[in-house]
Amino acid sequence: MSSITSLPNYPLTNLATAEFTETTRAFKGTPTVIDFWTTKCTRCPAALDELDAMASSPTYKNVKFASICCDLCDGAREILEQTDEPRWSHVDHYFMGFEYKELAKKVLGFKSVPFIVVLNEEGEIVQMGGKKQIDFDNIPGMIKESSPRGVEETNFGDRSFVLDMDF
């Protein structure tokens, strides 16, 4: 894994507004989960489905979710606009040109997508890697629910039980 501590400042295009920005400005001041993806990736839509679901959850209301498409700007727009409702509407979408994608791959150390980078509110990288390397239960800014005193939740396979421990 790379020893980089902050996301490099690379130019981006916001796919919703077509405005130009940079990574440091786009992701400043809010804990952020960024998914690097390409239009040719077969695993990327499922990863973005999961991120969109997390982004709509109250647990992550203080976390920004973003995607950066790294290959085809028009292709990304086509995928995002396939239906009447924008796809992955709880995620902010950006495009990064080929030259900067290659720099990001070298600096961040990724060889495949989806590749996820988690930033704290200062813009420091706190996690990065493939989906299996990210601890989504430990994202900066997420709201951790605590059980009321004397109540414990227990999971058994696909069943969840709440046990009242005050008896």
From TrEMBL:
Superkingdom of source: Eukaryota
Cited SUPFAM superfamilies: Thioredoxin-like
Domain Thioredoxin: 1-148
Protein name: Thioredoxin domain-containing protein
Organism of this sequence: Cyclotella atomus
Taxonomic classification: Eukaryota, Sar, Stramenopiles, Ochrophyta, Bacillariophyta
